[in-house]
Amino acid sequence: MHGLKGERVLMRIHIGERDKYHGKPLYEAIVELLRARHYAGATVLRAVMGFGATAHLRTDRIEVLSLDLPIVVECVETEERITAILPEIDAMIEGGLITLERAKVIMYRANLPPERRTASWEMDRTGLWDADAPEES
Amino acid sequence: MPLFAWVAIGSAAGGVIRFLLGTLIQQRTGSTFPVGTLAINVSGSFVLGFVARYALATPALGPEVRALLTAGLCGGYTTFSTFSYEGAALIEDGDYQRAAWYVGLSVVLSLAATFVGIGLAREVLNLRRRL
Predict the structure, then answer these.
(1) What are the pLDDT digits (tens) for A63-83?
(2) Chain B: nearest CA to A51, how far in angstroms?
(3) Do residues B14 and B73 touch, judged by C-beta distance below 8 A?
(4) H or E segment at A73?
(5) Pick from A73, A14, A18, A67: which is nearest to A45 by CA?
(6) Could you say which of B23, B30, B32 has the minimum Cβ distance to residue A61?
(7) Do A61 and B93 touch (CB under 8 A)?
(8) What does the alpha-carbon distance between residue B51 and residue B71 come to, in Å, rounded to a whole number?
(9) What's the CA gap between A88 and B110, in Å, rounded?
(10) Strand, coil or helix: what is A113?
(11) Contacts of B108 by beta carbon, 8 Å cutoff, 6+ apart
(12) Least crowded by CB within 10 Å, which of B42, B44, B109, B131?
C-alpha cells in the first residue's frame, strides 16, 4: 500500500443518478475506473436535494423529482494521479461539475493486525500542512 | 377483449400522463410543495366525476370505454399512494403546516372537483336533451 498521507488533491465529481456510461450508472463506471487503476479510494454520495446546470430541481421528497438525484463521487489522490485521470473522466461525463481542492490526508490505512502495521499506519496529528508523511521523510 | 385489457390500456396512458405532467408542473414551479401531485389528483377527480356521470347516462359509451376511462385512465392518472408518501415525507420532516395544507387541500379540492365534474355532466346531459 502506498502512503497517501500528506498534501493531496480531493476531486469531487457532481453528476446525476441516472447518468449512464455504456449502459451502466456513470458513478459506478467512474469508481470501477479508479479501482482498476489502483487509485487510493473513492466514495459515492447520493444527495437528498439539489440542482445543476439545467436548473432542474431534484429532491427525494417529491416522487417525480426523486428519479435523478444528485450524486457526488469523491476521490483523494496525489495531484499527478488526479491530473492523469481527468482526460478519461472528461470523455465519460456529459453534464456535470468537477472541483479540485487541496486536502491534507492525515490517515489512510487498512485494518491490519498490529504485527503487520508499518510506519504509515500512524495518524499525522501534528496539525501541520507541511508535515511530511513518515515514509517520505 | 376482456375488460381488464381495456383497464390496462387506460392505466398505461394515465400513468404516463401523470408522470410527464407531474414532472412538468413540479419543474416549472420549482416548488418543494407537492403541487404536481395535488394538481393531478384534483384534475383527475374532476375528469372522473364528469366521465362517470356522463358515460353512465349515455348508452353510446359501452362498458369497455367506461372501464378504459374510469378504472384505467383516471386510476392510472390520479394517485393516492403518492399523495400519502409525499404527505408522510412532509410529516417526517416536521413540516406539519405544509403537511396539513397538503392533506387538507388534496381532500377538499378533489372532492369539490368531483362535484364540479358531476355538475358539468348534468348540464351537458340537460343540454343534449333539450336539443
Answers:
(1) 999 999 999 999 999 999 999
(2) 10
(3) yes
(4) strand A70-77
(5) A73
(6) B32
(7) yes
(8) 11
(9) 52
(10) coil
(11) none
(12) B131
- Residue B45, H or E segment: helix B35-57
Bridge partners (DSSP) listed for residue B127 = none
Amino acid symbol at B55: A
Overall pTM surpassing 0.90 (yes/no): no
Q: Which helix (H) or strand (E) holds A9?
A: strand A6-16
| Positions in chain B short of pLDDT 70 | none
Q: Burial level of A28, CB count in 10 A (0-12/13-18/19+)?
A: middle
Pairing between strand A70-77 and A6-16? antiparallel
CB A11 within 8 A of CB A75: yes
Write the ipTM.
0.80
Instruction: Give the chain B residue nearest A56 (alpha carbons).
Output: B27
